[in-house]
Design brief:
The protein is α+β, with helices and mostly antiparallel strands and 88 residues long. It has one domain: Arc Repressor Mutant, subunit A (Orthogonal Bundle), CATH 1.10.10.1150. The chain contains four helices and five strands, in the order βββαβαααβ. The strands form two sheets. The chain has a three-stranded antiparallel β-sheet. Strands 1-5 form a two-stranded antiparallel ribbon. The radius of gyration is 13 Å and the shape is globular. The protein starts with a strand and ends with a strand.
Length: 88
């Protein structure tokens, strides 16, 4: 899965936000705030990644156990799916 190309990640001060660009901006006029680990996952999804590799990457980057990483990745992917930000 991958982040759709009409969304960009920006850093505003010490906070990360996602905004729509181009025609997608007509449908999605808000922004999504991301914490440090969410922006880490976002960057992996920009390149294309499967859920299992995201879980492993989160474990390695933040030193957390598989259960917590799976929970966090699942919640993040659910948010992205709800907002229609993912593509295959």
């Amino acid at each position: 899965m991958k982040i759709k190309s009409d969304f960009v990640l920006n850093k505003l001060g010490n906070q990360y936000v996602v905004v729509a660009v181009g025609e997608r901006n007509q449908e999605f006029q808000g922004m999504i705030k991301l914490n440090e680990s969410a922006q880490f996952l976002w960057r992996h999804l920009q390149e294309g990644a499967e859920e299992a590799s995201l879980v492993l990457a989160l474990q390695e980057e933040y030193g957390i156990d598989q259960e917590l990483a799976q929970k966090d990745v699942g919640a993040f992917l659910a948010l992205l799916a709800r907002e229609n930000l993912l593509t295959d």
